Amino acid sequence: MNIIKKNKKIIIIVLILVFIVPAVTFGRYIYNLFLDHYFASKNFYFNSDLLSKDGTQYTISNWSGVDSYVLTINMNSIKNDKKYALSDIYYNIEYECGEKVNCYLNKDSGIIPASTDGDKNRDSFALTIVPKEPFVNNEETNISITAKSISPYKKTLSASFKLRASKIGLSYEITDKKDDIFSVLRLTNSLTYYTVKEAFGIYNIGDEIEQYKYQELSSEDKKKCYSLLVNLSFDPRVINMDLTNAYYLKVLKNNPSKITTVKLRKVLKSFGDYKEDDLIDENTYDDLSEEEKVNISSQYDYVNGIIIEIDAISSADIKFYKKDTTNDYTYPFVNENSIVEIS
Q: I need a surface site. Which of 76, 87, 125, 269 has the fewest CB within 10 A?
């Protein structure tokens, strides 16, 4: 009997959870809808590009783990080009940082100014994250940021950021927007030294040479050193590297084995789901009918990877042409993963 009673209690508890938890979630959803409607009726709009009322979570894997990382948060009081706040919005800013970093906020409060045409309804703030010690590859720290409006109405927006060191000394980002024909990958090397890859003079393989000493070396000896090697890989069916950029041409001339290619075929005439100039692999080609294969070119080699060297304390910008210009490959924040794999 005791076992039956215990089982009944468990069943009752489970039933309560099954019905109450969704009810609470739905109630919160309805409450948020009510608040949004109420705020809109008062022309109160308190928005951000990265923060949200539900607390958006981001993972940032493009950090060097050595230099500082700046999170810039843009705020606005605009719903669309016809609706915007008609009074200034005052807000406070709070943050929490992991124990492995120091954080510095450029201001602890802000004002989103009102305007009669929506032209000025914007503000921003920045949080700078500085590692106390260099991070190792894949080491992480957590950051949270909250913005709370205090006048004329109260609303809270927040986000959490998992900041991960991807490769020591390397940080990167992709800038893009819809309808642009290319994305731009920026690679930044924050290392201050070079590593010997081929022994010469008094230096052995693996020795580190500071930048000022490196500059004194001959052209031949400089070729025996590197500061940062970056491996890029990508799908040429989606994006194509600009093969006129200096980094590609340098590798092509001095070390072409650092360039990888894949054999693909080009669609010569649109048919079915394929558009002219689309690229397909051999498996896709084999599945086509003989009639469809008439619209396909012979195999050609397309670049799908490269290892480049970036000098100490410098950046490299590389264009990638998009097969579909309606896509936005901005990284981080817009996309969780980079369209270019970087290691």
A: 269
